[in-house]
Design a protein that fits this description.
With 109 residues, the chain is mainly α. It has four helices and no strands.
């Protein structure tokens, strides 16, 4: 490794790893880390809490820790909306029922 990252081992590809190693992170990295935490750690716990609460309260209880994390920044939200609209248009052209597709990703259609 050398002071000029582009000339060192790995070139520019090593830059994200160096930033991560020294505690510097960009917003997309933080957002994705939050999503992974919510999806893989918090959502299973929330499902168990919801199941136990449903049994104790006698009515269905669901906890959703994913929905608030969907593109916290306005630019990301706009990109996601564009991607969703495009995907739904392609699904309609292909004869796929959009409501069924939304159920697969746990969104209400």
């Amino acid at each position: 490794m050398c002071p000029k990252l582009g000339q060192g081992l790995g070139g520019d590809a090593s830059r994200p790893f160096l930033l991560l190693a020294y505690g510097a992170a960009n917003w997309p990295m933080v957002r994705e880390a939050q999503r992974h935490l919510a999806q893989w750690a918090l959502m299973p716990i929330a499902a168990m809490i919801g199941q136990e609460a449903s049994e104790k309260l006698g009515q269905p209880v669901t906890l959703d820790v994913m929905r608030p994390l969907q593109a916290l920044d306005a630019g990301g939200r706009a990109r996601e909306l564009g991607a969703i609209v495009h995907a739904m248009a392609l699904a309609k052209e292909a004869g796929v029922d959009p409501s069924e597709a939304l159920k697969l990703v746990d969104w209400e259609g």
